[in-house]
UniProtKB/TrEMBL annotation:
It comes from the Bacteria. It comes from Nonomuraea bangladeshensis. This is Ornithine cyclodeaminase family protein. PANTHER family: KETIMINE REDUCTASE MU-CRYSTALLIN. InterPro entries: NAD(P)-bd_dom_sf, ODC_Mu_crystall, ODC_N. It holds the Pfam family OCD_Mu_crystall.
Amino acid sequence: MAGPPYLGDEQIRRMLPMEHAVMALEAAFRAGPPGPDAPAARAGLGGGELVLSAGERGRWAAARLTAAPVSRLLPSPEPSDDPVSDAVFDAVSGPVSDPVSDAVFVVFDADELRPRLLLDARALAVLRAAAVSALATRHLAQADARRLVVLGTGADARAHVRAMLAVRQPDEVRVVGPDARRARRLAEELDAEHGAKVVPGDPDDVAEADIVCVCLPGPLFPGPAPGPGSHVNVIGGRTPEPGSPRPYVVGEHAGMPGCDTDLHHVLTGEGTPPPGAPTLFTSSGLIAEDLVLAAELAAKLG
């Protein structure tokens, strides 16, 4: 008997376009806020550690299994430029940087726990992070936002540009990263891919941006903070540092510390930010959200 099919990065993106992913997440968040993930189970083996996280939504259940060999659990001499896609999924705080971790997302029929689909968990996480940022941007950013700055040059940054172009039409996109050559190369690739004006930028561009996507670890902004009326998307569940300008902070769920409201209440009109206030959406990556997109893929396969 044949086992469940496996979908990798390219297949996931082809079968679930960004616009479709945003629509699926919007329907899910309108229906109700996702709860926080249950504690993960860890198993130490001779070669490292296995981390198992699980969740359930409707007719589907899911398990995310991450393999972290000992060599990858050691501190990296160079921080990653891609905090979600280059990830070992931490049991409490979500992804932590690791450029070569292996993770698989298994989708089950909830009633029988029969495996239906295997997915590249990193590719799914990149799509989900960008799509939920786009959903927040659709409802929090100014309708006439024209200046987009993306901090990062990895897979998350690339996906966030694609996601922002699905919900807004900026006049210009600036890509900022610690490696100017990587930023220039990514800008050239995105410019050719999307037909939009995408150029390399520098940290000072954040001050004039209408929308900022933070796809880098470390401090939120390597230079000045965004100005009044701006909207910021942050991956990794981070919020502004103490002493920095305080925007209206929206989290994925009501239990996120440091947030003024959650995305469900924004969508239902119960968490509307004050007029003209700068906004910040922070996402940490919940199994319930990944499962929304995984269920879309499973349904397409029949």
